[in-house]
Amino acid sequence: MDEREATATGESCLRVDAIAKVTGRARYTDDYVMAGMCYAKYVRSPIAHGYASQIDSTEARALPGVLAVFTWEDVPELPFPTAGHAWTLDPEKRDIADRYLLTRHVRHHGDAVAIVVARDELTAERAAHKVKVEWEALPVITTPEAAMAEGAVAIHEGGNVLKSSEISAGDPQSMIAAAKYQFQNHFQTPVVQHCHMEGVTSFAWMEEDQRITIVSSTQIPHLVRRIVAQALGMSWSAIRVIKPYVGGGFGNKQDVLEEPMAAFLTSRLGGIPVKVSLSREECFMATRTRHAFTIDAQLGIERDGTLKGYCMDVLSNTGAYASHGHSIAAAGGNKISYLYPRSAFGYRATTCYTNLPTAGAMRGYGAPQLIFALESLLDDAATALKLDPLDIRLRNAAQEGDINPVNKKTIYSAGLPECLRKGRELFEWDKRRAECAAQHGNLRRGVGVACFSYGSNTWPVGVEIAGARVLLNQDGFIHVQSGATEIGQGADTVFSQMVAETIGVPVNQVRVISVQDTDVTPFDPGAFGSRQSYVAAPALREAARQLREKIILHAAEMLHQSALNLTLRHGMIAMTERPEMPLISVAEVAMDAFYHPERGAQLTAEASVKTITNPPAFGCTFVDLMVDVALCKITINRILNVHDSGRILNPLLAEGQVHGGMGMGIGWSVFEEMIIDETSGLVRNPNLLDYKMPTMMDLPTLESAFVDSCEPQSAYGHKSLGEPPLISVAAAIRNAVLMATGVGINTLPLTPKRLFTEFRQAGLIEG
Amino acid sequence: MDEREATATGESCLRVDAIAKVTGRARYTDDYVMAGMCYAKYVRSPIAHGYASQIDSTEARALPGVLAVFTWEDVPELPFPTAGHAWTLDPEKRDIADRYLLTRHVRHHGDAVAIVVARDELTAERAAHKVKVEWEALPVITTPEAAMAEGAVAIHEGGNVLKSSEISAGDPQSMIAAAKYQFQNHFQTPVVQHCHMEGVTSFAWMEEDQRITIVSSTQIPHLVRRIVAQALGMSWSAIRVIKPYVGGGFGNKQDVLEEPMAAFLTSRLGGIPVKVSLSREECFMATRTRHAFTIDAQLGIERDGTLKGYCMDVLSNTGAYASHGHSIAAAGGNKISYLYPRSAFGYRATTCYTNLPTAGAMRGYGAPQLIFALESLLDDAATALKLDPLDIRLRNAAQEGDINPVNKKTIYSAGLPECLRKGRELFEWDKRRAECAAQHGNLRRGVGVACFSYGSNTWPVGVEIAGARVLLNQDGFIHVQSGATEIGQGADTVFSQMVAETIGVPVNQVRVISVQDTDVTPFDPGAFGSRQSYVAAPALREAARQLREKIILHAAEMLHQSALNLTLRHGMIAMTERPEMPLISVAEVAMDAFYHPERGAQLTAEASVKTITNPPAFGCTFVDLMVDVALCKITINRILNVHDSGRILNPLLAEGQVHGGMGMGIGWSVFEEMIIDETSGLVRNPNLLDYKMPTMMDLPTLESAFVDSCEPQSAYGHKSLGEPPLISVAAAIRNAVLMATGVGINTLPLTPKRLFTEFRQAGLIEG
């Protein structure tokens, strides 16, 4: 019984939810309603740091339709973490629990001191405005440097430094010093927001058995369950989380955001359904952002471009609360360590609290910031040494058989050299590079390239576990339950393909149950770390393999054949020797299994599998752009990402992932920035009008390509692809601007304002 | 590993949903709402038989808020069955498909020709009244005799006889003839309705993938799925059925009632949610009723009371549509054949269509009618032969080792003699019987007894299959998914006990997921045939056994012990040799299994099991009553049911079941009757004011007792108990009246009106 006869992964098939989504029939959290649902609105801080010295909710409570006002005095004294990490048995490794549902000590602009519940949303909003708060201001800290300064006011009791960590592989300082050339530079990345289409929304009610059910737009239903239980001091399974379709998360919904509050409110209001839905403004100020990193990078390189060693010293700004805290800075160092594994690598990172909105997980999880620094510095070296930036990368890039210097894991599939070669050809790198030589005048053209590496899950930092259950229906359709979540990335489609391939049925005979329900859905931490397709695959494949075996065994009984003589392809049972002559269909087997009076039973299978491998994906971005020096404006002529993500499970969806990531990468590189007043900590542009997220009109044609690759440790040969497409975009753009103008800009985003500052400083323009 | 160390079944524990239900927090179908839900109301026939010759819905459609009007012309030409029987691979055995969603040929008062959908219920109702229909009447048939008469108009194309069947075990006619005494009589039972508290209600919407989801108050979610698919010509798994808490069904919701219509309407209205909810009047006229049986019974008996043989000849009135059709008359014969297995038994039954509301399944499924006849006739014999009715039953009752003469199955547990003996003592039968000798005057007292037998499922007529899945949560709580449905009878509680016992955890650590969802819930046909606790038990036990084993195996890994050395009791792992010294808890095992970085996985187990045994439950009713001859009124002084249902899984719930059944039995015996005009077929009392269902004030104290019994073929020693408590009530009451007055009344119910007729005929009263 070879369970992979029928190929399904590797083919492009339409998203299983494509029609549902374009027809508007797919149901998201806000499409669910409940009788008697009430609405909550926060009373938020207008200052970035201080105390609420007095609060008066009399007027708010008096408003008709208001059910209750809760303040910091009413919430449980149970600090809880919000980061969407699987639990760990090691108390040292657990996320920092620095949150209460409401706080008197406000730590960022928009921090919440009270919440109003009313019969309708407008009344809640109006009542929230009627809550009178007197504020007592504290000094505002907006940078890690200020946070660590002598005498800085403590934002949290334990001080302003969350954690520091260090990696040292192969004695980097000595290697850098011993190299012929040394380069170093200082890099700075901005605070940006995920800007998922669907906002942050959830509602909760108390079940008949005093348990609390929460419907939420989340990436991590099973983790929401645990964290809500922690926040309310309940037993974990007393919380039930349902996850409908999700309109994007990008890491923001890898935090537990408003679910604990929704649960708290219903628990205090006799179990009525209460919804906590944030406005876009609130999403900006009071959910999560991408960490701003300050990076001091240095490298040592030989004349021929051999990278001997590189070091990065990072200050990470996590804002007002820990959320994922230091793990983003720490993880970033691990994720990029596959890129140039033959070089020594040093990495130091410190994460600090400041009075900025809280930073959390965002696509790339620390890697984009570090890759921006590393790949920019490498181009500084290439420029100085007059080496082709592509050649320098080819020389140093990871190859099969290399060993990651940090974790000592062997790299079994390393398609990065192939990505660079394929990109060189597709992008016509050499021709374009020649065309761009010696640019002058106002319009200057440049090309750039940058690489990245990225793991396929969180192992060994986090436990990697996934579960899947498959059921054969009477009509031959197969239902799949998985704790891994569809959040817009196409997980359900790829999972359908995996199961179809392994069982041996057409893809359209497989139906993934997209809604997770933690009461019954197999356990899986959720969608993050680009982990899902890699970690869910062994569970899906094992469950599917078992079901295939059961189908064949039952068919054998029906056909009076040894199961060894039978195979299953394209939904039909056939003799292994005569696969072209189908005997009976899976549906016929199912009907007999269900309804034969004596033999058989319902055919189902379930598997829960832990993963202890974590192969890296690789890739690179090529950019060709024009800089209008006078207008300080960048126009991208062409942009191409080339990826090694192992076997590509669905080229159509993979292309979509890459395009999405590239667009987000361009946003981070050129357009987006939360403008936060350095003195007051106030957020100046918390809306989609003032926050300049690129639209389709602002983006060039996005091109993508993949290299042939197959990861041997992977259930279907694949590796991560969710986050990678974003990672190398910024450095490639920055490097192209360097080539075009000779100016290496080390602070993102490359907005006209930034370019103006840098070009003036470089003497390109006067002012 | 003895998985039954911790006893949980056999103990009284509170219903798991008790608090939810008394606090009103348990969610029933009507507690679920959806955005944009619309409502449907039928246009029903005011005549019992005829055609809609013309229909004009112009005015209805013009009413603001009306979305659509559908008539018989708009519905699929797909006849479908409605009976809640598991599918069979044998086409001969399938239920009769005689239904269309709407019909031009109306066959009973209230039959539906059209349906209106509107934005709100009132508008739908008003619009339905505005649909103008012209009617063409056909002759109305209300009795099987008229239905079979020469030249009778055909209610359905195939004629008015659904089916006839015959059982002959041991040459009954010869045995009766050879006996010393022969008795015979004619019995008649009424049409009654289930009158479940929660009405018939369901709603449906079209899912994002064109599938249809239905939320319904049903006993049989998995069967609803199949039948809706049949009615709409869809693939079975394209239908999804969700069953919330159910407020009673008693067999009425073992039919697929309004779910196909709700599904049809949403499919025709672009997927909007549409609700079809019936009023109490509609429940009476247009759902299901209990079959009226006309029974000619005879028996042959020896001087010592040895029953040599008995025969019954039954005409069953199924009304306008087949529904369960002939299977009720046929099944009844099988179910009672365990009672006196050493006697020859002859049984003939014919089921006819008439123009009465459709009869279907109702608690007892044919047995109450037959037991009424048999146990009445036996008392006629006892009276004539001056034998003690209790002795005559003791002499003939089934004993262990007897073989059912019809199906040749051995009876391994037969507690009926013990029931009779225990009842004799508890009821003080001999003393009371002596007190009642020679009654005269206006107030006359009598005692009566009657017995029954009843199977524990539908095997071998139907396939018996059940599935269960169990999941261990991080906090040690165990979730149970089962296709078997809680409909008020306490299934969830007893299932919790079974799982707790088998795993070895406290009952309150087990949580049954009460809501079924056919997309993911293990398959089980549902709640009917008193099958669930018997048929679900092996699946629950097997799944629980597997989970127990997995827990112990993981604990063994944690403790560096052989699993053979470990046991699990009261939620704690201990050494088998030192069970009193617990080592670690199930919750600790769970946490390690989930979160140890490498070993373990989520612990779950699933089993689907077919059952091919069907042991009978037994029992008897004792009644002491007073007859006011002049007022023709019966007052029950005392009533006691004694049951052999094998091991009693939860005495508290078992008592509740028995009380409910006895109350329903008293209703059927003394109070309830749907009054249907014999000429017009019109239902005269389709409401709870005119239909005299007894209230708590009308019922005596209900007493119950159980005998020690353990069925060896059963997973937990138990047998059926859901339907049995009702079955022998009517004959016991009738027999007590016979003793009190000398008048054997053979037509139910024993209302004052009936008693007046009979007493006058017997000369007890003048008139």
Automatic annotation (TrEMBL), chains A, B:
Entry keyword Transferase: no
GO molecular function, one term: xanthine dehydrogenase activity
EC number: 1.-.-.-, 1.17.1.4
Highest rank taxon of the organism: Bacteria
Annotated Gene3D superfamilies: Aldehyde oxidase/xanthine dehydrogenase, a/b hammerhead (3.90.1170.50), Aldehyde oxidase/xanthine dehydrogenase, molybdopterin binding domain (3.30.365.10)
Domain Aldehyde oxidase/xanthine dehydrogenase a/b hammerhead, chain residue ranges per copy: 23-139
GO cellular component term, pick one: xanthine dehydrogenase complex
InterPro entries named in the record: Ald_Oxase/Xan_DH_a/b, Ald_Oxase/Xan_DH_a/b_sf, Ald_Oxase/xanthine_DH-like, AldOxase/xan_DH_MoCoBD1, AldOxase/xan_DH_MoCoBD2, AldOxase/xan_DH_Mopterin-bd_sf, XdhA_XDHase
SUPFAM superfamilies from the UniProt entry: CO dehydrogenase molybdoprotein N-domain-like, Molybdenum cofactor-binding domain
Keyword annotations of the record: Molybdenum, Oxidoreductase
Keyword match Transferase: no
Alphabetical list of NCBIfam families matching this protein: PRK09970.1, XdhA_XDHase
Family: Belongs to the xanthine dehydrogenase family.
PANTHER family found in the cross-reference section: ALDEHYDE OXIDASE 1-RELATED, XANTHINE DEHYDROGENASE
Name of the protein in question: Xanthine dehydrogenase molybdenum-binding subunit
